[in-house]
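Consider this one:
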Amino acid sequence: MRADDTIFALSSGSLPAGLAVFRISGSKAILVAENLAGPLPLPRHAYLRTIRKTDGSVIDRGLVITFPAPNSFTGEDSVELHLHGSQAVVSALYAELNAADMRLAEAGEFSKRALENGKLDLVEAEGLSDLLRAETEMQRRLALEQSDGGLSAIYEGWALELTRARALIEAELDFADEDDVPGSVSEAVWINVRRLKLEIDAQLVATHSAEIIRDGYQVAIVGAPNVGKSSLLNALAKRDVAIVTEIAGTTRDILHVDLDLGGFLVRFFDTAGIRETSDIVEKEGIRRAQLVLERADLILLLSDDEEPTDAFTLPEAVPVWRVGTKSDIKPQAVVRDIAISTKTGEGLDELKSLIAASVAKRWDAISFLKPGRIRHAQLLHSASNFIEEALEGSQLDMRAECLRLAAEELGRITGKVDVEHLLDIIFSEFCIGK
C-alpha cells in the first residue's frame, strides 16, 4: 500500500440503491476516467457518458465529474462516477478499475490524503468522522462546528499567541541591554498568558458536555431486584429489550437503549438489582452495575414501596433522581422526584422531558465551540499545566521553554506537531470511500 497509488471506492450507501457514487483519487484518476468515458473537456462539470470496459462493452450510462489537483477533496486528481446502484454495475466497474492498476481504498484513506495534502487538519478530519456517524441533531451540529475549522482556528490562535509571547521573552533575554527592548515587556506578556490559560481551562470545562453530545448522555437505572428496572427499559425502547420475570436477579448483564430526546443522544442502562447474593454470575452483574453507576451522568434510583432507598452506595458526584415505580398499583408514600407506571405509561413522557431538559441545560451553559474528544481534553490539560509552570517559574529562559511546550501540545491537537502514530487509529473510524 503506497501513498502514490491511485485508489477507488464506492462512496455511497449499501446496494441496491438508486445511485452508486464511485470516487477515484490519484495521478491516474483522470486518465482512467477518460478511458472509461471518453474525453471530459471541463473540470467540475457533470457529463452524461456511457461507461465502457476496455473491450468496448457497456457497463452503464451515468455522470462523470473530474476534479484536477489541487482543487479536489484529497488535493489530488480526483473523479466521481454517478451510476445506477445495482450490484451488477458495481461489480463490473470494480473489476475494470482493478484491472487498471489501481487498488481499493482503505477505510478513511481519501480523508487521510486530504489531511496529508493540507486540505484538512486533524480536528477537521475528526469532525468529519463524527458527522458521518451523527445520529441526532446535536451530534450533527457539534460535528459541523468541528469539521468547518472553527475549533482549529481557536487552537491555532492560542498557539500563535504563545509563540508571540516566547518571541518577546526571548528578545528580552537576548537584548536586555538594548533600549528598545525594555524589561517591562515580559510583564505585559504574562498578563496575556494568564488570560490565555483561563480560556484554555474554560474549554476544558466544556469538554465533558461535548463528550456527552458525541457519545451520549449516560443514564443508569438502578434499584433493588424486581422494582421495575427492566420494565422501564422496555417501556422507553417500546420493545422487549430486557427479560422481565417475577424472579429476583433475572438481569445479569448490562443492557442499554439509545433514544433521541430533544436532539440529544441519551443512553439508558439497565443494571442488575443490587443486593447481597451468593450467586457468582449475579455478583458479576452487580459489579458491572457499579461500574456503570460510576460512569453515569444521571442515576435513576427506582423503588416501588416505602422501603428506604438510602441503602445503595452511589457515586457522590453523579446526580440521583428518585423514581417511584408501579404507581398504578402502589401508593407513593415516600416522597419521590417522579412517579411512573410502565403498565399505564404514567410519568414516562414527563421523565423523558425532564432528562432532555437536563442535557440541554448543560449544553447551553457552555461555550459555542467545544472539544468533543478525550484526546483534545488531554492535550489541552497538558498545555494548561505547561502554562501554569511558566507562570509560576522564576527563571525567564525556563518559563519561555514551558510556553514552547504548551504551544506544541496545542499543535498536536490539529496535527501540526508529531501525530503520525494517531493517524491510523483516527482514520480507521471512517468508512471505506471517505
User: Anything to note?
Assistant: DSSP finds 13 helices and twelve strands in the chain. Residues 242-252 have pLDDT under 50 and may be disordered. Residues 7-105 form a domain with the Gyrase A; domain 2 fold (CATH 3.30.1360.120).
